[in-house]
What does this fold into?
Amino acid sequence: MGIIFGKKKPTSRITQQDKAVLQLKQQRDKLKLYQRRIELSLESDRELAKKLLNKGQKERAKLLLRKKRYQESILQKTDNQLENMEKLTHDIEFAQVELQVINGLKQGNEALKKVNESLNIEDIEKILDETREGVEKQEEINALLMGGLTEEDETAVEDELAEMISQSLPSVPSEEPEQMEGVEVPESPVKEKSKRREKPVALEA
It folds into this structure.
């Protein structure tokens, strides 16, 4: 016969404190119901005692009043018990909140401790020193490049830059467009005016 393994029951999240609070609240509800029954009995006994007095049954009325008095003392005791139970329930619930806060702080401290362990002070100082050395070296290289060129080198750099700029600009045609055969191109007014000025003037005899 084979052995049947049952599934593992999930861990209950209900703590002993939760059970204690639940039991206290159940007892509180029972006490309140008991108080309600006593209050109804007190009202009934008082009305019955009045009726007995009206009928002339003084001793029976007195007996009911003694019972009423005793029930009132019980009612006072239940009030005290309810007050103590409410206080105890509040204390347990507040203790649970404090426990959750403490557990949260504990987990936070453990996480912070792990982060601090991964951050070695010597490694951080080494990284900062290497970064500082790299910046200083780059500054030295820049200083050499800026101050190591002669005036002739600077002129050559400017000329090369101007040449690169001129090559990047679009080329402009320098020759005039060819005249098509059979088509007269009118001369510009400026040229025609200059020709009139150059025309010799006849001298008078």
